Amino acid sequence: MIDKNELLASVSESSAESEFFSPIPKGYQKGKTKYVVVMGTVMSGLGKGIFSSCLAKLMLDKGLKVSPIKLEGYLNIDSGTLNPFRHGEVFVLDDGMECDMDLGTYERMLDQNLSKDNFSTSGQIYREILDKERHGDYLGRDVQMIPHVTGEVKLKLRTLAMKTNADIIFVEIGGTAGDLENAFYIEAMRELAYEEGPHSCCFVALTYILEPRILGEQKSKAAQLGIKQLMQSGIQPDIIACRAANAVSEKVRQKISVYSNVPVSRVISLADSASIYQIPAMLRECGMDFEVLRFLHIEDRIDLRKERAEWAKWCDFTDKIGKEKYEINIGITGKYTSVRDSYASIINALEHSGIALGCKVKISWIDTSAITDRNAAEHLKDVNGIIVPGGFGVRGTEGKIACIKYARENNIPFLGICLGFQMAVIEFARNVCNLKKANSTEIEPNCSEPVIDILPEQKKIEGLGGNMRLGGQDIKLKPDTIAFKLFGSNSAIRMRFRHRYEVDPRYIETLEKAGMVFSGNSPKHPIMQILELSEHPYFIATQAHPCLTSRPLHPQPMFTGLAAAAISARYPDKKIPKFLQAVEMVCS
Ligand code: GLN
Fold it and tell me: In the list 92, 360, 564, 571, which could disulfide-bond 579, CB 3.0-4.6 Å?
């Protein structure tokens, strides 16, 4: 751990005596950690996080220590308050940090838990600066964008380097070169490269090659202009990754090389790919990993034997993509059905389990605003399984409850997540326990049977007031339940949470008497975390978000259970393992 006072000591010294201001943590060794900085040009949405995480994975496989950091331009302190419809899902880390969905991509690719140190926003940077200013840490200086704000950014990166002891920090800068809100990050990277010295920072510019249908050929002008913009900010890219619908032609790569001072061997083509899990192989094939290692002068740090073993494991997984024997259709009910990014982790979790089971998972997005008990069968006739995911607010909740009723009564495999768990409790209370007025106080604040509520005593226990219960929490599983078996007969597991409401313990006895099994609870508090029904092929729900911890090589058991149960439902004649056997085969 780095002592904050040590950091502040170095801040004050440099601030008082010279124009230079580059707070460096005590003990920081220049040259130990290298930096790969990934920036976007031309447009956003090029997949900087995907590119960066795939490259990081190739380095990790080689035995190098890697740590990513995403630098966001917006002023929010975290992503918790962002609308997933505009910004993609809010990804929650084990330490409770609510961050950008790209952190999910890094965790999945690297099979590694990240922390709040791996995510920063302009809001966080400015808050640090203003706190220090009020504390008198700048000793009479006027606090400026350069060197103070950029200094704070560099401090963040170097502190991460020290804490993680990384060989390479992957820095992903949000937005696109030329955006005002990200300009100080780019400037900080220019300064960092200068201070750290030659071969310490590798700048990667992601760009886009247009291929207008009317012309029928690839055009590089937009890419050239985007790269020029970056160069005007004082950044000479070392690698240019050209995103495009199709493979980028040699001619276009040469043209970009001529205009950007980047050798054509480092101008690479990155065409659209069916699965992001195939991208590490694409990068490997064009020699990107070794280009970066050579550039950073760290070829001598790698372990090729480890790489061979890791790569074989990875290929076992990717070789199955596109060769699936089964196909299932999973219906996902949701408010943000038009934006797939809002449910990125769920889509990924289904993909992981599907690939492991040799099954292609198609997704049907179901808008529940018009679904009722009467028409649920019509809306759900083509699905082999249903997920009711997390969410906030009232819209579509009655439709979700109707879908759950249909799944429960018609033996359709069902997985409820967070709000989906709460809706499953309400449905069961209303239709099985005959508590017709059952609801959540989030939906109906004055309801007479608040089976889902914010509980005052739990507010006290968690010490969070009306705030959310966030991040990784331990769960104790009841022996001999489906949940217990799904998790390999392990009674202590951990999942990540993001909720405010929960089951009111006063109703537990009634619910249990009617057949609902609460198979996972908080070990310390009476918070119900997993429920299941034993007389159903697969009916399970959790107050947690199991999708957040599904990884390509370690599919999440609750998703694998759902996919396996849906396969059994779709192929009743085939001799396929029962879902628990299937889960055991792929999750153990
Ligand atoms: N709105 C619900 C709560 O706050 C569920 C939250 C969620 O699904 N993430 O408890």
Answer: 564
